[in-house]
Amino acid sequence: MRKQKKEKNLGVTPRSQDFSKWYLDVIDAAELADYGPVRGTMIIRPYGYAIWEFIQSWLDAKFKETGHSNMYFPQLIPYSFIEKEASHVEGFSPELALVTVGGGKELEESLVLRPTSETIVNHMFAQWIQSYRDLPLLVNQWANVTRWEMRTRPFVRTLEFLWQEGHTAHCTPEEAEEEAMKMIHVYHSFAVEEAAMPVVVGRKSRAETFAGAVCTYTIEAMMGDRRALQAGTSHNLGQNFARAFGTQYTDEKGELQFVWQTSWGMSTRMVGGIIMTHGDDTGLLLPPRVAPIQVVVVPIWKKDEQKEGVMAAASRVVGALKSIGIRVKLDATEQKTPGWKFNFWEMKGVPIRIEIGPRDVAENVVVVARRDIPGKEGKEFGVPMEEGPLQEYVMKKLEEIQQSLLERATTFRESNILDVKSYEELKGAIAEGKWARGPWAGTDADEAQVKDETGATIRCFPFEQPPHSHVCLKTSKQASEVAIFAKSY
Amino acid sequence: MRKQKKEKNLGVTPRSQDFSKWYLDVIDAAELADYGPVRGTMIIRPYGYAIWEFIQSWLDAKFKETGHSNMYFPQLIPYSFIEKEASHVEGFSPELALVTVGGGKELEESLVLRPTSETIVNHMFAQWIQSYRDLPLLVNQWANVTRWEMRTRPFVRTLEFLWQEGHTAHCTPEEAEEEAMKMIHVYHSFAVEEAAMPVVVGRKSRAETFAGAVCTYTIEAMMGDRRALQAGTSHNLGQNFARAFGTQYTDEKGELQFVWQTSWGMSTRMVGGIIMTHGDDTGLLLPPRVAPIQVVVVPIWKKDEQKEGVMAAASRVVGALKSIGIRVKLDATEQKTPGWKFNFWEMKGVPIRIEIGPRDVAENVVVVARRDIPGKEGKEFGVPMEEGPLQEYVMKKLEEIQQSLLERATTFRESNILDVKSYEELKGAIAEGKWARGPWAGTDADEAQVKDETGATIRCFPFEQPPHSHVCLKTSKQASEVAIFAKSY
């Protein structure tokens, strides 16, 4: 087994050695994704896509519970639409992909592949919304978007990615604000409860606010290399797009008003976040709730006469776990040794492995190995094979692993956020690769200076703030809030 | 009520009067879709999208049951890929949309928005497939595709549409053929069992075969105006793409072989097919299994003191039906009269309406109206309101409506297919607006002539063939098969 482990490690650079190379190796070895023929594009392979499908189904159910309907807007947007909202065009025009030829002919107006859909949504909302009775209008779409990024990385930043984008219109600014907050909390719940990814929820600085929004809320996660990942955002758009597109309604008094809007999105980037939060030197490590395979069953025998009994037991175990909704895989290939299989499924991040050998069959037990605790410590022998007790044991163990991963990631994060009082302390924290949290009352120019000098940006002003106000770490002005600074993806 | 019905009809042109206008009116009035700002593009609105979501979830489950995994390929394809398979480029190049500018710069090579993904799929399969152990490779993706069509119609033919495309690779031609057949039968099952849409399953003529395929199987449905709609296709690709892209595997003897492939797709066009199969003068008529709302409950009261009792009863009825998984809507708005609501939900095609008035409450009964049988005949009074009996009654009634719609559509279709023995008879049938079924052994040129002279094409050679061979209706040669000719969408 040791030998094979070594062989396998040739495939995946240890995380501790080179995080960036480890990430790309894991994506390749675990067959999560591959590079498309066009620079910066990505193929999401079945194992990676299954994680995305889980994210989709969880979010989709939540969106519906909170009153949103799915629909679909075309991805082709007239170029002129993008120009209607001033800060929107400024933010997105460098990243646009343009269709200029259709059906063999030059088009009169270039068409944009949606980088996001606020413009076309407003073009339609303006036609559909007449009166206050049509509000709130709460919709979502699952779609691909295109942004011509120069530096790409699978899942984290690609020319084309998959996401959902919610778009809503309301009668009052209070309702829009409530909606924007509600949806960032949906993302927060997903990250913490399902992806075991502790995140800081907060407000973006003005410089980092979505192009066209009044205010952007974000969830920020710390990856294994301590860089921050923006994992989901929710925007209060105010009336910016409504005014640009004339999205108006008649209120109860019969007067025309502009609607108040929000938009919010989570993307396939989340898959990258899960990989980089939990993975270790061995490879991928998936939280049970999002794992496409939660349990792998490996039957082990040496002599031919042992095979039948072991295989029968393995099938019963698989059946027992499947019947209670556990996603289980039987690896019964005879072309690979058990040791090779152990390493393979560890690299693929499957949370639990069940081993069944002839002696286990004789004793009516199985061996259970936890992916998150390496070696003997994570292995339990003599777990009852009987249906009821086994089901209960595995369910409990999956829950334990889920919680344990969240705790581990939370501890890691907490030990890597430093509270800073001065710009010197901030520089020190960032130079150490950590996050810096400190009072901030600086201008956009101050923020830009920090970025230039340290490479760190304001990730957010966290919703959870210390009780007292302080002195800004850079300007020495009175600061009503602390901000978190970090290098980010 | 009569008056309001009349008002409502102002919105929807009767189907019997102008089918094409009726179709567009229904899509507008029922809020199924709207026109995008770019010519030929469509917004799928929540009510239409909910039908698509049902199609997705049904097919997705079937694809997984039959061993396919979902994944995602980029939509941007290098132009050179399209040119690699000779008949593919011939078929698709007139319909391509090209991205020529990205991130503000002219691209060196134009990129194609996928019109279908065989080329990029093979580019990747060639990298992933090494040995016979990697086969069969069975994948599917849910995606948008772009085809620069000149004549568009919502759902039926749009510049961009949503679909799934399955792509598989196999060791032998027999396996590929079996797969292509299996998947056309999945589409067949969906059409008949879920959409209550009788379809003819068959093989396309060479002229109508997918660009790059060896053989195309199709399901062909008859719309309410008797035009044919190709509602799903499955292609046996042979080794055409494998040879163009070098998609090879090492067989058990260690020799390099090209894979045998299939691809198959069903799209948002199916939503158009459902509308045009079942709709009537009143508007949309949805088969219960695909209806986003299966039952609408309309509480009716005149005096304020009646409201509480009626509303309480309506809520109980809604709860009882929801609890057994029926998709039910309570329409309790006070801004509209019951008569207006009846007409509105009839136009929206909801299969069952339940009316509850004060007298019903007193007698512990409800009134049930079937959408598919207009007027008093479709109305049943005194249906027990008690939970168990009501649940049973509604379940049974939904099933009855489902079956009844399938029978009605089947009868309509059968009475509109004429068996023809000569070209004159064929011309007569087509001139009458019907489908013609007759023995065919003509060439591509003969087929083209029929199209020129009658406007009809060979929809398919049905799998169900008459027992004896006949004389070709056009060439008088011996024909081993009958073909179906029709005008189509």
Question: Brief description of this entry?
Answer:
Chains A, B: It catalyses: tRNA(Pro) + L-proline + ATP = L-prolyl-tRNA(Pro) + AMP + diphosphate. 2 copies of one chain form a homodimer. Chain A is built from 15 helices and 25 strands.
What order do the strands of the largest sheet of chain A run in, or round the barrel if closed? 3-7-8-14-11-10-9-22-25-21-20
* CATH homologous superfamily classification of the largest domain in chain A: Bira Bifunctional Protein, Domain 2
Overall 3D form of chain A: globular
Number of strands of chain A: 25
- Share of residues in strands of chain A: 25-35%
CATH secondary-structure class of the largest domain in chain A: Alpha Beta
- What is the quaternary state of this protein? homodimer
Provide the low-confidence segments of chain A as ranges.
1-10
Structure annotation, total helices of chain A: 15
Number of domains of chain A: 3
Helix percent band of chain A: 25-40%
Greatest interface and its residue counts? A-B, 57 and 57 residues
Helix-strand makeup class of chain A: alpha+beta
- CATH fold title of the largest domain in chain A: BirA Bifunctional Protein, domain 2
Q: For the record, give the distance between the C-alpha atoms at the N and C termini of chain A, rounded to a whole number.
A: 37 Å
